[in-house]
């Protein structure tokens, strides 16, 4: 509960690289997500080339923080791995959330940048990362050591809870 309730979007990072082993742990968390029929239709593209990171804001309007991030991870769905059509979005979303939570538990800051279903962002990342046609980027997650602190956000809202019907 602590990891879940203290996760916030972190958009400022200190100038410090994130080790490969930590990235590996985040990926392990992401790939342990549930998926429809256990199809695991995901791929993860690690971006630590500064020239690539710096190009993201040219096609993604809400991604300025990536200019400071040492690394980002693109979470992509592979349509050729889908057994249950259309479920890849939920599968990859679950993987993305696991990744964010694992990062928080490890003292790293992240923010979920929405890509799918915005056509210009999908095509921008496709070109930047050379993604094949059957692979669709769902989200891009900058990762870094936080340079801002945010209190937990209490969003529990009784009005949104319904028992046995609306
Ligand atoms: C599907 C999705 C897309 C998002 N896209 C962006 C984005 O493009 N840029 C950004 O700065 N934050 C983005 N966010 C982060 C939200 O703004 C953030 O989660 C929300 O304001 C709640 O704040 P918190 O994450 O600190 O709890 C996105 C979050 C989700 C789940």
Spell the H/E element sequence.
HHEHEHEEHE
Overall pLDDT score: 98
Please give the alpha-carbon distance between the first and last residues. 27 Å
Small molecules bound in the structure, each named once: flavin mononucleotide
**Radius of gyration in whole Å, from Cα?**
16 Å
DSSP helix fraction: 25-40%
Please indicate the percent range of residues in DSSP E strands (runs of 2 or more). 15-25%
> Quaternary arrangement of the chains shown?
single chain
Instruction: List the uncertain runs.
Output: none
The major sheet is characterized as: 5 strands, antiparallel
Number of helices, where a helix is a run of at least 4 consecutive DSSP H or I residues: 5
Shape: globular
- Estimated structural class: alpha+beta
Strands, total number: 5
Key words describing this protein structure:
166 residues, alpha+beta, 5-stranded antiparallel beta sheet, globular
Describe this structure in words.
The structure is a single chain. The chain has 166 residues and is α+β, with helices and mostly antiparallel strands. The chain has five helices and five strands. Strands 1, 2, 3, 4 and 5 form a five-stranded antiparallel sheet that branches. Helix 2 (20-31) crosses helix 4 (88-105). It is globular and about 55 Å long. The mean pLDDT is 98. Bound molecules: flavin mononucleotide. The site of flavin mononucleotide (FMN) has 9 residues, from strand 4.
